[in-house]
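Troubleshooting: if your tokenizer reports a length mismatch, compare your output against this known-good record of 194 residues.
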Amino acid sequence: MRRTLALALTLCGLIAAGTALGPGRRPVGYAAGALLLLASWVRLASWGVVTPEAYTLPATVPALLLGRWRRRREPEVSSWEAYGPGLALTLLPSLAAAWGDAHWQRPLLLGAAALALTLIGARHRLRAPLVLGGTVLALDALHELAPYLVQVAGALPRWLPPALAGLLLLGVGATYEQRLRDARRLRNALGRMH
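Known-good structure output:
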């Protein structure tokens, strides 16, 4: 079943890539990239791969180098176009593997890599590494902290979590306009990044 799905996704991705070569059809290329990326993940899952980094990193490095070369040639290319597919190729399967991993090494290495990407994205004002790295870092940290949060929540009196949620809502409501301004500033700052 998974192998058939991987084959179907690959064929659809190749058809979309061929379609994107036509004039004015460049946006179809994004769909082609997403389909081919999804096909590779489904293929890895069908093979029962437990270490996807061994298969994704050899493709990620050339994709990132190609993206860097393209950004040097065409500075108006966004970081999502240049680096997004290469980063997603490794980060997302690694995140899925880390969530299913009972050991601490993979989540630690993934968190360190995601933190480095977030810092690189912030330093060089590149949206793709900043957003992808930050998202993977947050999800990795959430996964690692979840057992402890459940323990803490179980040790608290039953009335305390709803009371804290009410205080949080009260605080957010009292500073609503400031939060809107902060959200607009964040959106504008991300919009100015490449």
